Amino acid sequence: MRLSTPTGDEAVDLDAVDLFDAATYSDGDPHVVWHAMRERAPVHRQVLPDGRGFVSVTRHADVSAVLRDHTRFTSKRGTLLSILGGVDPAANKMMAASDPPVHTDMREPMAKALSFAALRSRHPSVLGVVRRMIAPLAGDEPWDVAQAGAGFPMEFTGALMGLPEEDWPELARLTTMAVAPEDPSFGAEAGHGSLSAAHHELFEYFGEQVQGRGERDDLIGFLKAMDLGGRGMRADELVYNCYSLLLGANVTTPHAVAATVLAFTEHPDEYARLTGDRDRTNLAVEEGLRWSSPANHFMRHAVGDTELSGQPIRAGEAVVAWLGSANRDERVFADPYRFDVARTPNRHVAFGFGPHYCIGAPLARIALRLLFGELVRLVERFELAGPVAHLRSNFVAGIRSMPVRAVLRPGAAAELEGGSDVVPAPSR
Ligand code: HEM
């Protein structure tokens, strides 16, 4: 998705905008549309040719209000536009598609297993993944950061969940296909068929993974042993939650990586500011998350008649919260179209807001901090080395391909090739 800077003078016909169409994000300019919506129609209705409709909210305050309050806006009827008008079979079985108290019963123990403290022992293995991933920067060929990033979360989440390593490449492909079924990279399969094929294969796969495992010290083992108010998780609940965890990790994290590196190529002065003060790396990671907003939207349904920004919302209406727009809201962010590696405060909603706030945020932050800690330490500057191709999806603000070249610091090539024992500063 293009991360453009609207001038406010663009002619945007709000009756004609199509936020459902995946091509809006691969070939269009959604930031111009969202800017106009925040100004002129903060509560906007779109009806599709088949009669299905949805309300869009684009301001930070409305997005937060929708995500925060499950008593007004339920997650049980699906949380992605791809399910608009349908029935979510995962309702009350998968944490992401349930409301409290069912949601809380699943979330509380899972959140402990995925907390910063519980993941501390994983730092060395994630750093190992980071170093393998960036090693090609030492070579002469351009490095496709989007393609390298595509396998990045799979490696640390696959290990955490205890999934066999030989399955990781196919799992990474299937999870992307499940959120970007219309992307041409899925060739002849592209479209609704690829969405069902991806779901079918992933559910079958996790069905096999959760069956017949003895006690194991990994995340799937933990889910199997969890106590849900006096009972264990049923097989279908296990499958849905494994699916959700892997999808949550795989389809978002790569785009935070690629879009942040893209921002470094476009704002070399900001990158230089960062390399001049590496203590800012964690702030830069947060700005990269705000800037990229890898998850474009999340959906809810109004439980009863209500209102947002003074506009009535009818019971049962689908309400889509556009996170990418909220993260550029000039009501909350000073100079929102400026990429500022030291932005503080930075109240971005890239990980959502309220009870469903991303449970994988600690893991994602650990991985991104370790990755950018290494890049900022070793790379003097990045340069684009080819065209940037954007993913065709209304859910993931993704980059499919982005070749870059890195100008390395003295000694970095040897280190990347494994010729140095320099130990990097630990991430905080
Ligand atoms: C940069 C990386 C990531 C981004 C931008 C991101 C974004 C989000 C957002 C916006 C939500 C809120 C959904 C809602 O309100 O309905 C969410 C929830 C979730 N995420 Fe992430 N995520 C990331 C990484 C991860 C990782 C690494 C995992 C797995 C370990 C993960 C698993 C989940 C799950 C299971 C939920 C549902 C939580 C609940 O319903 O309580 N995510 N994520």
Automatic annotation (TrEMBL):
Record-linked Pfam families: p450
Species: Saccharothrix saharensis
Any single biological process term in GO: cholesterol catabolic process
Record's keyword annotation contains Nucleotide-binding: no
MF terms (GO), sorted A to Z: cholest-4-en-3-one 26-monooxygenase activity; heme binding; iron ion binding; steroid hydroxylase activity
Gene3D superfamilies, per the entry: Cytochrome P450
Keyword list, A-Z: Heme, Iron, Metal-binding, Monooxygenase, Oxidoreductase
Record-stated family: Belongs to the cytochrome P450 family.
Record-linked PANTHER family: BIOTIN BIOSYNTHESIS CYTOCHROME P450, P450, PUTATIVE (EUROFUNG)-RELATED
Keyword Oxidoreductase belongs to the record: yes
Domain of life: Bacteria
Protein's recorded name: Cytochrome P450
